[in-house]
Amino acid sequence: MPKNRNTFSFLARRGRRAASWLVHRGWEWAREAGAVTAEHPGRLRFGAIGEGTRLAFPQGTVFGEPWIELGSHCIIAEQVTLTAGMMPDLDLGPDPILTLGDGVVLGRGSHVIADTTVTIGPDTYCGPYVYVTSTNHSYDDPHEPVGKQWPRMEPVAIGPGCWIGTGAVILPGARLGRNVVVAAGAVVRGEVPDHAVVAGAPARVVRSWDPEKGWQPPLRTPAPVPIPEGVTPEQLVALAERGETPDDR
């Protein structure tokens, strides 16, 4: 009897390993087949989608795609929501509503809700679960449920080269300049100048760049050492394993 029990346990383990292998291989296939690119748009018909842009599978909610224009080499992670208009199947006119520049990155679970114009400049990187919206609920009438009151809409513009941290919220009417850093969890509204760092809820400028004085207040960590020309990725890996930097050589 113990021998039979051991045989059964062995077969069960092998069966579980085989099932696990099949599930993982099947999921890898689904992720590859379900990804959206310019060459393989699936059911989505964007107003524009550039070369090298990829929406990972599974996608979040996507509608109003004729009014969504995606630049080249954008990375849209899993479960990202992209919407133009308040609901599907609306005619939003001749102009794009939601525009992503070249090289934009949207982290997993992020939402970009464009009931009116939302523009994200090139080379802007967003961490996971960032929320960008051009619409906010109104609560003018104290006797009516907030969700039934007509929302307020204001355009949103995010400049090129920004970094938006995990869980940040960009509210209607926000206008971010060039190379702005938004701290994780910040809630941003209004105007943010170029080369500023904002944090908090509501967000405020906590560091900014002065052409004469540099960053104010000064950075607390030294600037990264640039990689010398001619250093290959393999050499960098070897140096990291030895705890060295390119300047140590």
From TrEMBL:
GO MF annotation, one: acyltransferase activity
Keyword terms of this UniProt record: Acyltransferase, Repeat, Transferase
* Family matches, as SUPFAM superfamilies: Trimeric LpxA-like enzymes
Renumbered to this chain, region (Disordered) spans 211-231
User: In this record, what's one Pfam family?
Assistant: Hexapep
Give the matching PROSITE patterns. HEXAPEP_TRANSFERASES (PS00101)
As for family, the record states: Belongs to the transferase hexapeptide repeat family.
Q: What is this protein called?
A: Acyltransferase
Organism of origin: Streptomyces stephensoniae
